[in-house]
What does this fold into?
Amino acid sequence: MQDTSLPPESAPPTDVAFPKRIKTFVTRAGRTTSGQTRALQVLGPQFVLPYQADKPFDWAQLYGSERTQLPVIFEIGFGMGDASAQIARQQPMSNYLGCEVHEPGVGALLKKIEEFDLSNIRIISHDAVEVLENMIPNNSLTGVHIFFPDPWHKARHHKRRLIQPPLVQLLVSKLKTGGYIHCATDWEPYSKQILTTLQSTSKLVNQSDQVNGFSARPNYRPVTKFERRGLKLGHGVWDLIFKKID
It folds into this structure.
């Protein structure tokens, strides 16, 4: 794989004080529909997991002993769950754990779980950093998906961006050797920062064979309606895929 370099302006700004801890979510206002509320009430007890700081996940208990050896993919911020449900439906031989604090999004994904009769998704509605630190065993994940995280466009807000070295190092510790991190964004300056951050992280190797370091969208990541709308307007989308090595 090619080791690409980026111009200085793509690096995180040096004049911004980054917080010691990155909050992985922003509480957003949003109305929960009656269908989402019903899904939360009826399906939530089966598919939404409680946050328990002193109790790491037991994958066999979560997904069933017959699925213990299957890959576990962790998704941070699944939004309304469209891509999550499609991926889980297309790849039934993988286990998926989605992390999202937006209640309407959790309800929407639960509706899709019911609609598609999915049994390989579980949801946790809590800060992803705390989930990673306290509930996900080291060297246990096959993949991490982070699709279209908030780009925080203004320079003074860059410190709030999710993809920063402390989180990436934490993700690497949770991945198995050969496991991957897949990020996608529609904001080019953020894509360059993500690329710089992943390239500078030890034990991660870029899987792109393109000179610019970005990957073609893999078939498993569906194009969402918002992405499709942006593409029609000429907006770009950048995928980045890195694998963990020994």
Remarks:
- Confidence is low (pLDDT under 50) at residues 1-19.
- The chain is about 30% helix and 20% strand.
- The first strand starts at residue 48 and ends at 49.
- The radius of gyration is 18 Å.
